[in-house]
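Box 3.1 A note on notation
Throughout this textbook, protein chains are presented in two layers. The first layer is the amino acid sequence; the second is a token string describing backbone geometry. Keep the layers aligned when reading.
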Amino acid sequence: MIDQQLRHDVNAQFGHIRDMIVEEAFKPVNSNKNMDYQLLPFRFERFNDTEYLLTNEVGEYIFLQNEDFHRFVNGEMDIHSDLFYDIESKQIATTDKVEDVVSMLATKFRTKKSILRDFTSLHMVVPTLRCNSSCIYCQVARKNRDDHSADMTKQTAKNIVKTIFQSPSPCIKIEFQGGDPSTDFEMVKYIIEEAEWQNLFKKKELDFVICTNLTLLNEKMVQYLKKHNCMISTSLDGPKDLHDTNRPLQDKELDHHAIFEKHLSMIRKIWGNNDCASALMTTSKYSLGRFKDIIDEYIRLGFNSIFLRSLNPYGFAKQYKEKIAYPIEDFIENYKEGLDYIIELNKKGTFFVEGFAALLLRRMLTPFATGFVDLQSPAGVGIAGVIYDYDGSVYVSDEARMMARFKNYYFRLGNVNENSYQEMFNGELLHHIISSACTECLPVCSECVFQPYCGADPVRNMSEQGDMIGFRPTNEMCKKTKSIIHYLFELLHKHDPEINRIFWSWLN
């Protein structure tokens, strides 16, 4: 089990935040001695020319007209008005005993942060770096199919599984990454069976996912994956011309998209449903202006969701940035157009989800936590997800592993063949990373109205800006996430019953 000191540190962090809330709640906010209510901590921002957006510590929000906002903060609002009742229901102000309201906020805060209770549940494993693709934005130093220099040994695999099951989380997901793990399917099988054997004693909820381009899978492999309930995650960048441009196979004679479509059909036939395989897209500069085509291709191939994902600044995507990258503003514009198109499809009766919007909406509209590692505070790296490389090296995230391919080993926790679980997962390095990645305490983030919905990514900050904290005014991840959250608020603020119905259907 995880060292009690780490649990103590997490509890201390929450206690510190709770104490700050109480301290702020009791501070005099203005000189109005006749104030009938007490302001509680909230963040605010001018949303448009006529309104402010206010959010509290747990992400509950309200829009106020400019004049109402100024009356509210100056203590001049009628406490018997419907508007004040709305504000009070969000725990942004109160006429009750402050300690009681803070206690309620603390309960909600614990719910929002409940992902921390289980510690690391997502464990990514790289059986090999071999791959048969030549993706233009490849984020790792892939190996050719006949190059076995980066294959995992059975002893390393056994030590990885042993380390995974030392996690205190009751739920364990093992996700096979690469390269393409199907190039060493025997090692995938070995790890699955070793994990199932260990779980006879550990009795955890155990899931498997394999990330593959599908082209090397055959019926026997798929039947094995089905037998062991190993879901399939793949990549689809759009129609044939776009997919083959972004993700060509090393064998130029082969038609990647055609093989993908054929094997996808075979997989679904064996499993007996379409839910066994999900797909992820990556936006290169060739994808811009074509989000409608990409979405249509997903629907044509029977997918009911898409995650409109921008380019990550790692590997070839960073090395050849001038050839395949684009200003983040271009992605944001395309994302909004794509989201609008998806909403229109839903209005016409086609159920189809945009994954990133659904994650953010869950944070904005519900009291529950989300497991998406990239939007956690404290950062999810290491404590929500971790990756084990083919040689047994342990990195806090897949992106950290990508940085290591280019000789930056800052986020390497250790090696399963050399270090204990406690040394890696309760060592000084992980403590330092997490302590530098709480949005509640980071410059600019701590005051941002969107802070309750966002997360810290120290690995990306290091890659793009040279340190784990980063600089928000020039931070592309910050600019993208804030723009998308703002746009979702614009859509919610329309109070369009059709849009609201669609958004709630994505969450349900």
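Residues 4-26 form the longest helix (23 residues). The chain is about 45% helix and 10% strand.
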